[in-house]
Amino acid sequence: MDYDVLVVGGGIIGCSVAYEMSKYNLNIALIEKHYDIADDISFINTSVVYDGSETSDTVMASLEKIGSELIEEACSKFKVTYKKIGSLRLGDNDEDILNLQDMYKRAKIRGIDKVHLISQEEALNIEPNLNIPFKKALYSENVAIITPYDLAIAYGEVAADNGVNVRFEEEVLNISNISKGFKVTTNKNKFTCRVVINTIAKEVYIDENIDKLSEENSIIKFSKNMSYYLVDDNIDKALEKIVVKVLDDNTFVLNMPNISGGSILGIKNPRAVNIDDGIEYANMLVPGIHKSNVSNIFSDAYKKDLMVIDDTCMDKGYIRVTGTHYGKITLAPAIAKTISDAIALNLKATEKKDFIDRRREFYRFRDMTMDERNEIISLDKRYGNIICLCNQVTEGEIVDSIRRPLGARTLQGIKRRTGAALGNCHGSFCVRKMVNILAREMDKKPTEIVEDSKDSKVWIGRIKEFDEV
Ligand SMILES: Cc1cc2nc3c(=O)[nH]c(=O)nc-3n(C[C@H](O)[C@H](O)[C@H](O)COP(=O)(O)OP(=O)(O)OC[C@H]3O[C@@H](n4cnc5c(N)ncnc54)[C@H](O)[C@@H]3O)c2cc1C
């Protein structure tokens, strides 16, 4: 067999599974079709780490609780930004308040501490900018925000450092049974393995003996009834907590602060709302939002609880983890741990004695003291060469982001890892320099460098003979 375990998909689920499985003496590969990990839904989401108090589903609640604890631990271990900002759910009428009371009781039964049912006055002490009618609130101190792609990259890096073979730009086309395992066919290779953990939405496993969900049934279609408004931080009365307010039977509004400033306003309505309606709803929770504050809008289907952990073929070695659950980032480490432990047991795998549960060191010039800056520059002069002026990102950090395990190979890859080109000038000063560094490090021509995918060249070609190009 080529591999003991093959993980399909490099989102937060695939990366956390690869990390958990890399603790065992197994030969493991992860296959991702894009140039980078966490390049799909794990990159675009609202980044909230739930605590298990909001859902009525007991199994999901327990996984969320475990997941949120594992995420806090991983963020501290791997230097991923994590802010426990807390959440407030506001209740105005009798029905809302009954719902909050139910959630509160459930939290107590589930052993989730630091969840409180509080009065309007207490809520206003916690979030003085609240400017919407409500009588009571459910306050959870546990709810946090993170950068999920940073967490996925951290899991991926540690997995790679512990021997997982991460294969990019390879698309799994189908998976079929062979004696005592599977044949996994990609657009480039054919692999054999004992176990497959499939984390992609599309079902690619063909097993005639098993009546699996047909492709048609497994993709459930929803209308895009959830709109998200990315709002800048120029709002006078911005809210610092995650705040949820039900407006009527069909509509609720959410405020979710971003880790890097600004916030996302989410509006759930049976229909996709237009920008004027959206801003009107958003203003009900956070007054003072104008169109000019909105930098991006996206819509998605609100699919509350869809989560599939299909282990019907577990005895054969095939597990599928998919679904569009609103808290899948939170669930990811808990699901990964549960299935990895079960697979290791099935394969009678032993734990690695030399497992390195650490991420290679990296430096953020903008967060360093003057002494620390001088020290790092004396060790490597490239840390003294600022490439991105807005976010104070140095050449040293960019080179490190390329040379790390699973290093950046695209402009987006550098931006996500370092924050370069994500400042106010949107890269007008630094993108040219970043392209040249990437080309130099990858031994490519600058015209071969891509933004994020195969057909996304940054520079189309040469128009003049400049020395630098
Ligand atoms: C708008 C929105 C907001 C959300 N907010 C939150 C939140 O606040 N908190 C929370 O906990 N969760 C949240 N979620 C849920 C969460 O973000 C996603 O469910 C989660 O990121 C999905 O991770 P994944 O690994 O399952 O999938 P993905 O991130 O989609 O990863 C799948 C990977 O598989 C790769 N792939 C696909 N097909 C193939 C193939 N054939 N071969 C090889 N590779 C392949 C893809 O390129 C991709 O990288 C939100 C989701 C959405 C849509």
From TrEMBL:
The lineage of its organism: Bacteria, Bacillati, Bacillota, Clostridia, Eubacteriales. InterPro entries: BFD-like_2Fe2S-bd_dom, BFD-like_2Fe2S-bd_dom_sf, FAD-dep_OxRdtase, FAD/NAD-bd_sf, G3P_Oxidase/Oxidoreductase. It comes from Clostridium vincentii. It holds the Pfam family Fer2_BFD. Residues 4-341 form the FAD dependent oxidoreductase domain. This is Hydroxyglutarate oxidase. Residues 386-440 form the BFD-like [2Fe-2S]-binding domain.
